[in-house]
Each structure stands twice: as structure tokens, then as C-alpha cells.
Amino acid sequence: MSRAIRVGFFVRGVAAVAASLAVTGAMADNTRNIMITGYWPPTNEMLRPFSANLSQNPGGWVGQNWEGLGYNVHAFFPEFPQGLGRGVGDFEVDYQDTATDWARLVAEVRPVAIITFSRANTARGWEMEPALQRFRLPGEVNPPGRSVPVYTQDYFGVRYPSDVPIAAEPIGAIRDSSLPMQEIVDAVDLAFDDSQIDPFIALYDPQNPNAFDFGGGFLSGYIGYLGVWHYDLNNAPDATWRCVASGHVHVGMSANVGFATVATEITLRELIDHVTKIVPFCAADFNRDEVANSQDFFAYLTAFFTAEPAADFDGDGVVNSQDFF
């Protein structure tokens, strides 16, 4: 039987199924949105292509269905027209502003995964922070056996996170990263010399937390904690909007923006691969729009007749009629 005849039989056989899918396509309990945040340069500049804000990214948002992988990448970061300091816009270097923006943007994006980035005191590091902690507020007492530093003051107003949700967290509470840290390090290391981007996982002994800085007691450690806290609250399969990975990356202050942008892309690919293993796409959702309907059928036909690798459903390395059945 010719390929055209086989396809004809298949088309007639699935017409009713395609129509049914158009009506009954269902959404999962997670989005396909990834949220990434930055602070001081280079972290705001390297995320700029992923901002949907035209005033920040006049070149246009590249994050929608990024690289055809089925995920929308949303970046948020401040601008620094007066140099460093507090900045202006989303996630100003301020505890209260960050708390307000965090609550608003997480509710809007409903991220399935989060990476918070900030500038490090290394030169060109791409540093995975394995854990974050709730630091102390002035006047608070260390828990038994712990030596928890006090948060660093921000720039004006209420200068500590004393009137925001994190203040209700236990002093010294530790929350772990759920990013695929080693996979990210390996992939970034493969792409760069250490003189360009130097990826590593910060050394952390959970049995000796007093020896670790947990991302530092300023806004880096603060927003990093917000990210892993959100994961801890929303990683269960029955979460309303499930988040399956979150963590913080410290980026060297002298990192070239072009290199850092490429390292961001590599990091996102590893994250997406990790997330998809946890919350895989429905096989019928060929165009990865979170709805299984007739559009997936026609998208598959296009891929099939152009012999695109994505049409190899049975994974035998050949696009042929067996992939239909």
C-alpha cells in the first residue's frame, strides 16, 4: 500500500478523534511558563531578550515557545540609569519592592520553574547556590547552635525585610535548590573556557551550615530564598499551579554580557529538559500549546510530510507510516 493511501486511511480514521480532542482538550495543573529574574548587571542585560516589556526590550520578546521547546520564558529585572544602587522598575534592589513585585509576578506568570540570578563577587563565575536561608533581622537571636548573619541594609525607607512575608519564616530556615545544578554546570563548562564563564556549584556541607553564606544576606540571598520557598510551597502534584524547579545562580561581575546570555540559554535548555521529565507533555499535544486538539493533528501532518525528526513518534530514527500507528 502506498504512503499516500495509508495516510488517507489514517486521516479518515482519526477525523472523529481530532474533532473530539478539539472539544475535550484539557489543561494540566501546571503552566509551561518559566520565570527568570535579574538584578545588577550583567544579570539584567543578559536576560533582556526574554523580557516582554518593549521599553526594556525593543528588539522583541524571544521567550514565547522559546526554541520551539514548548515553554514561555519571562524575564523581569530593574534598570540602573544612575549606575548601581536601587535601580528602577521590576525587582528594584529593595526588600519591600522585591516582595511586592514577587507576589504580583508569580501570580501572573504561575511559573512551572524559576531561576533567580544576581551579580556575584567572582569575576566570571556561573555559581549554583545549592541552598538559601532566612537571615536574621536586627534584634533577633540566633537559634541554638547556629550563627546566622543579619540581613544587609538596603537603600532607604524600611531597610530590612521586617515587614514582608519572609519575616514570618523561622530564623535560619534553610531551603534547597531544586535546579539540575550539575547538568547546568557540565553543559556551560562544555561551551566556555573558564576565562570566559566559569561554572561551579558552591561548596556546601548541610552538616555545617554556619560555614556557608547561602547566597549572602543582601538581595541575592533574599530573592533566591523567595524562589526556593515558592517551590517548596507549590511542588506537590496536586498544587493549583505546580512549580517543579527553582534555584539561584550567582553571575560573576565581570562576565561578558554576550557570554552570559549564551550561558543563560544553555541553563534554560538544561532546566527545560529537567522540567519536562517531571511534567512531560501529553503525546497528543504535538504543537505543545497545552491543549490536545485538531491543530496538533495538522501540525503533525506537516512535520510528517517534511520528514521532520519530531514526527518520528516511535523513535526508530525513520519518519514513516509506522509513526502514525
Specify the CATH architecture of the largest domain. 3-Layer(aba) Sandwich
CATH superfamily membership of the largest domain: Peptidase C15, pyroglutamyl peptidase I-like
* N-end to C-end Cα span: 15 Å
Provide mean pLDDT, rounded: 88
CATH class of the largest domain: Alpha Beta
Share of helix, binned: 25-40%
CATH topology heading of the largest domain: Aminopeptidase
Instruction: Summarize the main sheet.
Output: 6 strands, mixed
Number of domains in the coordinates?
A: 2
**Helix-strand string:** HEHEEEHEEEEHEHEHH
* Beta-strand percentage range: 5-15%
Work out the radius of gyration.
23 Å
Extract low-pLDDT stretches: 1-28
Q: List the strand order in the largest sheet.
A: 2-1-5-10-6-9
The structural class is: alpha/beta
Number of helices: 7
What is the total tally of β strands?
10
Q: What is the overall silhouette?
A: globular
Task: Report what the structure shows.
With 325 residues, the chain is an alpha/beta fold. The protein folds into two domains: 3-26 and 293-323, no CATH class; 33-278, Aminopeptidase, CATH 3.40.630. The protein contains seven helices and ten strands. It has a six-stranded mixed sheet. It has a two-stranded antiparallel sheet with strand order 3-4. A hairpin with an 8-residue loop joins strand 3 (78-79) and strand 4 (88-89). Helix 3 (95-109) runs parallel beside helix 5 (219-234). The protein is globular. Residues 1-28 have low confidence and may be disordered.
